[in-house]
Design brief:
Layout (H helix, E strand, L loop, with lengths): L6 H10 L14 E3 L6 E3 L1 E5 L16 H4 L5 E5 H7 L8 H50 L18 H12 L1 H28 L7 H20 L2 H12 L4
Antiparallel strand pairs: 1-2, 3-4
Helix pairs in contact: 4-5, 4-8, 5-6, 6-7
């Protein structure tokens, strides 16, 4: 008689290993979509640490049937390595397999914790971007009062290393929003540099020369772009990612 695992035990073994092979040199995903159909393909197996029946590798005679078919006696493997461990009990010892199982479950837990940390990081960064964009939009009103108006460029907040921070969270917020944010932040950064040069050149005085005219034209382009890009709808999409991990 072979002491097989129940379906519930198989599922528990698979889920606790993150549906990946517990062999640390493999760790391949064992379930995925069936190509050409809507089903799934499973290449994983719940393997016995102590053999399920007499004559099997690492068989332990004094175990009960319940113990042999228990979660504690199982390890989730891809089919290749499930077959391999049943061919060499001298190399694939009980101690090794138990260690593989423990490490695989720890790795799966670490991956989940890592995802939670990434969401928290994303929320933190998006909150900073959100507050900056609100302030940027408010300061734009100062430029709209008169053509060629200048404010201290530091009034337009932009995160230090914003490109790096945006890249870190781009896979969570999506390509479309990431691209829009990059475009706006890049425009803000460039115009802040232009504004600082003009303020330094004029030393706070209003001047009428070619450089001032060129600045006015660039300021007009900046305001036109910001009105088009930095919309209420865009800012609401940023706010969504500030709130989405509250649950």
């Amino acid at each position: 008689m072979r002491d097989n695992f129940s379906e519930a035990t198989k599922k528990l073994l698979a889920d606790r290993a993150g549906r990946k092979c517990s062999n640390p040199y493999c760790r391949r995903t064992t379930i995925g979509p069936q190509l050409g159909d809507k089903g799934t393909v499973n290449i994983g197996e719940a393997a016995h640490i102590y053999a399920a029946s007499p004559g099997g590798k690492r068989y332990k005679e004094d175990m009960t049937s319940e113990q042999r078919s228990s979660y504690e006696n199982g390890i989730w493997m891809c089919r290749t390595h499930a077959a391999l461990i049943d061919r060499d009990e001298k190399y694939f010892t009980v101690e090794m397999l138990k260690s593989w199982k423990e490490d695989a479950e720890k790795n799966a837990a670490d991956e989940i914790i890592g995802q939670v940390d990434e969401v928290r990081k994303c929320k933190f960064r998006m909150n900073l971007f959100y507050m900056d964009f609100l302030e940027d939009k408010k300061i734009l009103a100062s430029l709209n009062k008169s053509r060629g108006a200048m404010v201290d460029e530091s009034c337009f907040p932009v995160q230090n290393e914003w490109e790096k921070h945006l890249e870190e969270i781009s896979y969570l917020i999506g390509a479309e929003l990431s691209t829009s944010m990059y475009r706006i932040l890049r425009e803000l950064q460039v115009f802040k540099e232009i504004m600082k040069k003009e303020i330094d050149r004029c030393a706070g005085r209003r001047m009428s020369d070619k450089e001032s005219l060129a600045y006015c034209r660039r300021a007009d382009l900046f305001k036109e772009r910001m009105e088009e890009w930095l919309t209420d709808e865009f800012i609401e999409s940023i706010k969504f990612f500030c709130d989405f991990s509250k649950e």
